[in-house]
Amino acid sequence: MRTTPRPLTARRNGALHGRLRAPGDMSISHRALILGALAVGEARIAGLLEGEDVINTAKALRALGARVERCGQGEWYVRGVGVGGFAEPQAALDFGNSGTGCRLMLGAVAGCPITATFDGDASLRRRPMQRVLEPLERIGARVLAAGDGRLPLTLAGAREPIPVVFAPAVPSAQVKSAVLIAGLSAPGETTIVEAQATRDHTEKMLAYFGAQIRVEVLQAEMAGAGGRRITVTGQPELEPQPVAVPADPSSAAFALVAALIIPGSEVILDGVMMNPLRTGLFTTLFEMGATIERLAIRREGGEEVADLRVRGSALRGVEVPAARAPSMIDEYPVLAVAAAFAEGTTVMRGLKELRVKESDRLTGTAALLRSNGVEADISGDDLYVHGKGRALGGGLVATHMDHRIAMAALVMGLGSEQPVAIDDASFIATSFPGFVDSMRSLGADFS
Ligand code: S3P
After folding, report:
1. Which protein residues are within 6 Å of ligand 1, measured from CB?
2. Domains of the chain, start order
3. Which of 129, 185, 374, 398 is spaced 20 to 30 Å from 368 by Cα?
4. What spacing in Å lies between the alpha carbon of 7 and ligand 1's midpoint?
């Protein structure tokens, strides 16, 4: 439990230099624990993100009867109970700040004949759960108590899960994954039709653990070109496999943008995952004129990874199409900071989903910029940032329990003329423990 807020200030301190390995990918870390817990036998995980969000998933899995143990830094092992094998927990499961942990675990519990109460912090209690509850009810789970589809809620898993075909109304890897995980308990095939492709870590890891899963790319004449139809065959015996978690591109993004906006910087980011459904930020930054070299491209943990050499760069404003949003959904706050330091206007289209993240990130990002002398407007679901190649700074940014707003604001402070303060740095630990020390090792001034 968090106690008092921890304010923090970032100030300009010259160019950044050095190497940094961002912590393990958050999405893969949650999935490795959950699928490990649904497998039969022991899964070893290396490089697990030991942030609060993932630790809460580990605790929930223990409460459901899986053995989850830490054997060294980032080294974990999970002894699974098999698909459908969770035991009823004694107390409410607390997912803290994590939408991913909560929604994926709703899917995991929905396929088991047990009842569990799900809860989280004030931020998570505000976020919509109906998007996952609706398909999970179709599979046969019952929501026993939930105030308007939000936490805290109690879910009774299906006694006889039904395979479904479901097309989520929003592009969401969390919804897709919850349904696929619940569908593991149903006899026959469970299908997700997504109009826009979202991160595919669940599909890849299910295949790796031996599930039968088919992924078809939808053709232009069908609804949603670029979308996918994903079908999993239920009731597999998942075989645990060793998982090596690559560095999280969403976390690496903060040091990357900091190096780009501070002239003279040269930073190497080690082992960053380059899954094509996660690299929208890199595409956008290339279009803006960023100097980012991909070194030592290789495969780790079933994903392409690369070391990225980033140099301080003159950036220009660009238009970011709505279709790119799923591949960079968590990166918009820090992209907006890069856009402030670019010359010209950057337009980011189709940001509706940002309103239901850990905070309303569309409003929060615009406020972050404006409080530091950068002109920004929201029009419908689009964000306009009018870059002038520099930012005044001097603002105090309200982070609203949102780790990514906090880190983006600190990056802003490293490049601004005046220091930038945030009201609370404590939520950074949900996704990037060690952020402050890692950035200091590159030369950042945080106090
Ligand atoms: C995630 C999916 C995304 C992303 C989140 C992680 C995942 O959420 O914002 O940080 O691991 O599946 P949505 O599915 O709500 O877009």
Report:
1. 27, 100, 172-174, 177, 199, 329-330, 353
2. 8-24+247-446 (3.65.10.10), 26-231 (3.65.10.10)
3. 129
4. 27
